[in-house]
């Protein structure tokens, strides 16, 4: 399940409704994230009213926060106006980054969760809701703005200044993706059935797609319509055509090689736009100057990059997942990690700020794949 960039203040996070709801996740006291499926598409753009804990709150996404805060800045006390104005500036600056990195930020707010945007949006929403103490909220707003400014610097390598990356994703659990790296559709359906309850994304591995063809995407999606289906096409040429085929077969996310020609990446992105779906740039084989290429492909409109060490690279002596995590931290764009994630390493993947953790061997090679997936999920804080 994807969690929306909408991060809303709640009056009481102790509400049984919020605690038990499959559709909301407590980020921290006073703030929840809502699942995409729970938010009608139009509301992701315009905001909507929802009754939570008996109070009506205004929910909005990052772009909406910008618009609404304009209204707010016309009224209220001087302190409120100043606070909202700084938030507006911060949100706009962040939004520009979102626009820059993703051609479809408004339609994919889930991938816009980075660099302090939700914190600012949430704080703007708090001030606007008028439901809680204004002084406290203005304090929260200022903090969010400061955090966003700090995050501005996070794209730069950590240098002598000693400035560390500002916290970005850590309040929101990383999504778990199982790589169905098996050779038959039958085995893939079995593995998907065993693990679906514990994962957010079902990935059809490249070998599976090659063995069974695009119909395998259709079959997995039909069996698990509530899950995001990721087609690991690893497209190296004819990006638009190949991505189009995978999306038409039912994929929600499709990979294109980050090492491919820029036009191949752009082509896949164009297909993604046409279908309203997401393209992921797989950075497998890009090792030298990986951060530079990650930033380049991000600007081409992919939803996020997969920083990936393939099975052959993992088999080399001295391989460590840490280099992938370090590059993710340094790149300052949304990323997933794939490269032999195990129970021992999944916490560090989350700490790196990854959006998605991809696990193949740790699940399909386990004696009990369901238990392995469940365990990995439980290790995500
Ligand atoms: O993409 C993958 C690889 O290239 C084989 O197709 C894997 O799905 C990915 O590496 C995740 O698997 P593990 O590395 O075994 O966790």
TrEMBL record:
It catalyses: D-ribulose 5-phosphate + formaldehyde = D-arabino-hex-3-ulose 6-phosphate. Residues 64-105 are annotated as: Disordered. Pfam families: OMPdecase. GO terms for molecular function: 3-dehydro-L-gulonate-6-phosphate decarboxylase activity; hexulose-6-phosphate synthase activity; orotidine-5'-phosphate decarboxylase activity. It comes from Saccharopolyspora aridisoli. This is 3-hexulose-6-phosphate synthase. The keyword Repeat does not apply. InterPro entries: 3-hexulose-6-phosphate_synth, Aldolase_TIM, HPS/KGPDC, OMPdeCOase_dom, RibuloseP-bd_barrel. It comes from the Bacteria. Residues 64-83 have a biased composition (Basic and acidic residues).
